[in-house]
Amino acid sequence: SPLPPIDFRAELNDEQYAAVTAEPGPALVLAGAGSGKTRTLTYRVAYLLHQGVQPNEILLLTFTNKAAREMLERVEDLTGIPRRYLWGGTFHSIAQRILRQHGELIGLKRHYTILDESEAESILKTAIQARDAKFIKTKNNPKPKVLHNLISYARNTCGSVHDEAADRYPFLDGMADKIAGFHQDYQKAKLEQQVVDYDDLLEYLLKLFREHPEVARQYQDRFKHILVDEFQDTNRLQSEIVDTLAAHHQVMAVGDDAQCIYTWRGANFDNIMRFSERHEGAELHKIETNYRSSPEILSFANDVLRAQPAGLGYNKELRAVNDSGEKPYFVPLMDARGQAQFIIQRLEGLVEEGRDLSDVAVLYRAHYQAMDLQMELTRRNIDYQITSGVRFFEQAHIKDFTAQLRFASNPADVSAFARFTTLLPKVGPKTAEKLHKFIRERAEKLEQNFVDVLCSEDVLKKVPADAREEWPSLAETIRELVHALSEQAPQDLVQLALDGWYSSYIREIYPNWTERADDLQSLVAFAARYDTMEELLAQLVLLASESNERSPEDLKNCLRLTTIHQAKGLEFPVVFVIGLADGTFPLKRTIDEGDLEEERRLFYVAVTRAKEELYLTYPMLNNQGNQVMRLNPSRFVREVDPSRFETLRAAPARSW
Ligand code: ATP
Ligand code: MG
């Protein structure tokens, strides 16, 4: 049956129309944020279907599976063709689909399983231990997690693990050879267990195509049209896949180099350059109109890009077509708490003006920045949804840390005890339970305090040998907490725990421990709001469990909290970008290292999510409970012409 007519001319501008109706052949659409790149791809699919292309001859590659689903739903609306007939998804999901079918040709059984990050790391760790028993225990050697990242980076950039390791550890003799060896063993172990990590999915797909050209040909012939969104953030491995599948140059890619924010995962602007080399005669389309944002927001965004050092990227000044609106607001506030209060206050106003909560998004650089806001929202029963990432209080390190406080205030709490003791090597839930029972019985028998027994030699003997080194420091922290419990305020107790065992533990375990340390430090200020430990603990439990009680329907009309990375491609009528202080955004590390360009692009991505209203909030103080630090406004805002925004004095001026 014929498809419902679509007036492509009316739905698209000339530049978009040209791309949508382009003859088969390679094409590259390079255009700024909100110019309709994603829309162009969506209409391209609908157009091809109108031209008689079969649904299963089209492949759509996107950055998230959700993005693919939304685009194909739109295609379904436009054409009536059910989205399940089309191939769309991330590189990983497409690779997975093909490998399930042909993986056996390269030694992958049909039932292979996919590892998550932590499972993959633990296999690597086992491989390291098997090859070199002393490696992990030796101080200054990179941790398994760091090595896993290194290996992954090398693979995603199609480089060699050996070279990458030699690059990163030039002064450690023989280190590169060692790491390359770990990598080999790691690969072998996974194959033996018939498990694959994310990078394997992509590498195995290429291997399959390389070793079985007839399979490659099948897909090269089958996909008459390959469409790629967010091309600027594909890495070398992914672009190899595009190039292999697009053997007939039947590929259209869209992207914006100014929005490249995944270089840390191997994304590389060179891919855009290589595209024209690999697919000679590629048609280049540019779109210069922005349909998303008000002219005011767009002028601000253009200024952000103008602050880039000359010569970086394509020059893309965007033209606004939307009605004039309000200038972006720059809002200095006392601290993170003031920030949260301002947002809530503004939110109430917005709802009164007739906005839905789902019209609004709060964006931030790192998850911990949203902690105060999450608290206020919870307290006031305002629904919010966090895009990916765990809610602040549900994060493992927050729960591990606060379990110590829970336990100190109630030593009968076995699960709190197990939560932190099982962090020690060779201590599992069973051992933890046994230890707890032993200590309890011993304390009763000797008529001693539970925590004094906890620190005794008798108990140490019961602790598995591998955990004995760390045990005394852990036990001592708990003992101090218990003794301070009745005398000290909650924030002092949190500080006491921070000075104890757990902080040195995370240093050993997590390569990115500083972020976690920041999270934990922010708990001191959080605790300062409670008079007693009981109140604090009750609140923590509430905050950590609350998301489980929501049904998906509840989540429809709710505020969106998200990192900027996760907000790629999305748009909202009202956007708050929080934490605009030097050291927070841009991050301190990037300032110190003079490595600001990716941060700046990230800021550009953030502000270009907004359609009508944009609030940039700046906490003037970093309030850590016991310690207050003054912060400067973000240089990214200072670089913008002051006439482009309005400063809103929401907080009463106060001297410090
Ligand atoms: P990003 O770089 O952020 O991914 P994008 O270039 O993919 O942005 P889209 O999300 O496709 O931009 O479009 C931005 C907004 O503008 C969407 O709401 C889209 O529907 C609208 N839009 C794009 N082109 C047109 C047009 N020709 N007419 C009306 N609306 C349009
Ligand atoms: Mg897009």
From TrEMBL:
Catalytic activity, reaction form: ATP + H2O = ADP + phosphate + H(+); Couples ATP hydrolysis with the unwinding of duplex DNA by translocating in the 3'-5' direction
Any Gene Ontology biological process: recombinational repair
Positions of ATP binding: A31, G32, A33, G34, S35, G36, K37, T38
PROSITE patterns, A to Z: UVRD_HELICASE_ATP_BIND, UVRD_HELICASE_CTER
EC number(s) on file: 5.6.2.4
Top-level enzyme category: isomerase
Residues covered by the UvrD-like helicase ATP-binding domain: 10-294
GO cellular component: cytosol
SUPFAM superfamilies the record matches: P-loop containing nucleoside triphosphate hydrolases (SSF52540)
Alphabetized UniProt keyword annotations: ATP-binding, Helicase, Hydrolase, Isomerase, Nucleotide-binding
Molecular functions per Gene Ontology: 3'-5' DNA helicase activity; ATP binding; ATP hydrolysis activity; DNA binding
CDD domains found in the cross-reference section: DEXQc_UvrD, SF1_C_UvrD
Superkingdom as given in the UniProt entry: Bacteria
Segments forming domain UvrD-like helicase C-terminal: 295-569
Segment forming the signal sequence: none
InterPro entries for the chain: DExx_box_DNA_helicase_dom_sf, DNA_helicase_UvrD-like_C, DNA_helicase_UvrD/REP, P-loop_NTPase, UvrD-like_ATP-bd
PANTHER family found in the cross-reference section: DNA 3'-5' HELICASE, UVRD / RECB / PCRA DNA HELICASE FAMILY MEMBER
Stated family: Belongs to the helicase family. UvrD subfamily.
The name this protein goes by in its record: DNA 3'-5' helicase
